[in-house]
Structures are given as C-alpha cells and as structure tokens.
Amino acid sequence: xxxxxHTAVPGETPRVAVIGGGPAGLMAAEVLAAAGLQVDLFxxxxxxxxxxxxxxxxxxxxxxxxxxxxxVSRYGEAAPQVGEWLQQLSPQALRDWAAGLGIETFVGSSNxxxxxxxxxxxxLRAWLHRLRVAGVVFHMRHRWQPALAQPLxxxxxQGPISHQAGAVVLALGGGSxxxxxxxxxxxxxxxAAGVPVRPLRPANCGFxxxxxxxxxxxxAGAPLKNVRLLFEGNNGRRFERLGxxxxxxxxxxxxxxxxxxxxxxxxxxxxxxxxxxxxxxxxRSLDELVTAxxxxxxxxxxxxxxxxxxxxxxxxxxxxxEGLSAEQWQDLSRDAAWLAGRIKALPxxxxxxxxxxxAISSAGGLAxxxxxxxxxxxRHPGWFGAGEMLDWEAPTGGYLxxxxxxxxxxxxxxxxxxxxxxx
Length: 423
What we know:
It is a single chain. It is built from 16 helices and 21 strands. The protein has helices at residues 23-34, 50-55, 68-73, 79-88, 91-100, 121-133, 187-192, 213-219, 255-259, 261-271, 286-294, 302-310, 314-320, 326-332, 336-344, 399-418, and strands at residues 2-3, 15-19, 38-43, 63-64, 105-107, 112-115, 137-140, 143-144, 152-156, 159-163, 167-170, 197-203, 207-208, 222-232, 238-248, 251-253, 274-279, 346-350, 352-353, 361-366, 383-385. The strands form five sheets. The protein has a seven-stranded antiparallel sheet with strand order 18-17-14-15-16-13-19. Strands 7-3-2-11-21 form a five-stranded parallel sheet, with helices on one face. It has a four-stranded mixed sheet with strand order 1-10-9-8, with no helix packed on it. Strand 9 (152-156) and strand 10 form a beta hairpin. Helix 1 runs parallel beside helix 6, helix 1 runs parallel beside helix 16 and helix 4 packs across helix 16 (399-418). The longest helix is centred in the C-terminal third of the chain and has 20 residues, at 399-418.
C-alpha cells in the first residue's frame, strides 16, 4: 500500500482532511486553511464542484433575498439547527463572500440572487485559485473507503492510499445525481459503525401519476403555466402556491411540484398515495367560470367552448377529462357548476416520488441529533459532517446552496475549536 500518512509531532501545524469537493467541503477547506491549518481535500471525481457547476448551468442561484426569518422557515423541521448555521454565514454574508472573489451578484425579479454573469464556472475558478494559494492540497480520483478510523484509507489512481489526519470533515453529499459524485455509498458503512443515519429520500423531485395513454402521448412535456397547487399533508400541514409545472409522460415535475415535494413524499410514505388539487385558472373565480360556462355554446365544440369562455385549452383541457370515460365526460361536462369546480380544483393522485438519483437534492442523512452543535459526530470525536449528507432539506431558490456552505463553515469552526485553535 502506498503510504501518504502524516504523523503529527508536538508544535507542528495540524493536518485536516476534508472528504468531498462540493460547496460544503470547499467552504470548510477555506475556513481551515485561513486559520493556518494544513488541509488535504479528497474527492472521488476527476474535478471538484461538479454538481455545483450543473446547478449553475441555467444561471447559478446562489441564495435568496427574502428576510432572514422567512429564509430560515424554509428548512422545515431542521429550521432551528439550520438557523444556527446561518448565523455564521447568512445570505448577505454569502453575497459579500462572492464579492470578495470578484463576483458581483444581483437580486432577480423572483427575489433569487444570481452572479451578474449568471454562470457558476467563474466563481468556482476564483474560489479554487484562492484555496490553492492558501495551501489547500487537492487529491482527485481518491475514493474514501468508509471507516471512522485512522489512518484514512482511499483508493487512488495508483492504488490504495493511507492518510493520517488530526481531524476529518465529511462532506460526501446526499444520494441524488450519482454520476456527479453524490451516490450515498457512505450510508451503510456509517450505519454499521453505529452512526445515526436516516435513509436518503428524494427531495425537490417529480412524481408518478398513472395518466391514460392518450394524455401521456398527446401532452407529455407540456408546461402547465399559471396554476395553483393546493395540498394538505400529514398533521394538517397545508401548501398553496401559484407557479408552473410540467406534465410528463409518467407524472408531474417542475418548480411548483418541487416546492411541495416534501409534503407530497411524506404523505405517500404514510398513505400510499397523495392527491393534490390544481387550480387551472387561478385568475378567475368559481362564480365567474360558472357564469361563463353557462352561456349556450350553440354549434361550437366543447373544446372551443372551454377555450373561449374559460380560457382552458391544450394540456389543461386534456387534464379536465382525464380519468373519465367518454360517456361520463359528455354527461358531466353539460353541468357548468361541475365543470367550473373541476377547473378550480382538479384532483391529481400521485403514486410515488421519482427515483432518488433523478431528484435535485435528497433528504435524510446524518441525524442532527447525533451531532454536536459544531457538527461533530457525538460518538466519534474529531469527525465532523457538513452539507447535503446531513439530515435537512430545503426548496430550490438558493436555500440549498446557502445552507450547505454555511454548514461547511460551522463544521470547520468546530474543527478549530476541537483542535484548540482560533479561526
């Protein structure tokens, strides 16, 4: 076995290993290197920040501009803990950090915060340059062999490697987008070592719906714009929001569905399915639609009547008759009140979330109850966790990236405290 181990001697600068080169791991490495520690960052992929670059492909959503109290509320059950992380790296502090890298940001019309150039690559390049100048050593194509023991074991390009570290920050990601490095392979070994780990589950994901072949073939890929999604989840938790989603061949996906995904997923887990309601015409009241649809249609087809009187056409019109036989549709569609009610609250039954590897992010991971406030594993002193491998989740909109980077800073500060050093 090749030996890249390092044995500490009195008075020598401590050596810290960061395992995982996503935003959380990179932020941890930055804080540690800035405090004068020797930092080795290991990643199984050929380069770092792959999921970060993918997230920024259509415009890097760095954070969100809403007030901090509302921002923190987006983290659901984990809001108290994530709120503490954000005290160390708030959304505004993250913008200031980006400015320090020469990346100017702006608040978009949706209150989301983006780099002025919109791209992730310039920020990542500037960040990596800063880290290398600070002395961070990158070990790429080094896959950690999960075991909470020293020396650390890796499978590297030239074979097995051992490495001794005074402390370790694990930032291995969740279980979505395995091809980019977040494959969740660490879950079973850490569970076997007695670390409390909750199963990884899809978050910000699409869902399966048993559409008829006709709807799937005719309208797959069609956007459902300006619709309102209404849903009541477990324990009376309600969701109601205006937005858009996409009708796929096998279900629904898109930003509006992702925003409700945690409630929908948990309802399916508890009950086997989840039925949401879509208001297809939220800009018109029920009474307005009843009046409009009550007007005689003469020789016009029902499709033309729906389009002219209610503004419903295309995929929305297809959804209205989904699940009904031709005879049922002909009978019921003559009832203006029934038809208007269906437009305002169309029931859609979801049968399962899409697979974890298709999700934007994942829930589950290292149980926060098994970590100290400094994100050290309670049963394994000197081992810290950060990023998406911790058990928290958030909607898209900059919340994921902000909390991941904040957790990296908290874990690094925890390392400094544990080693008796100051950041």
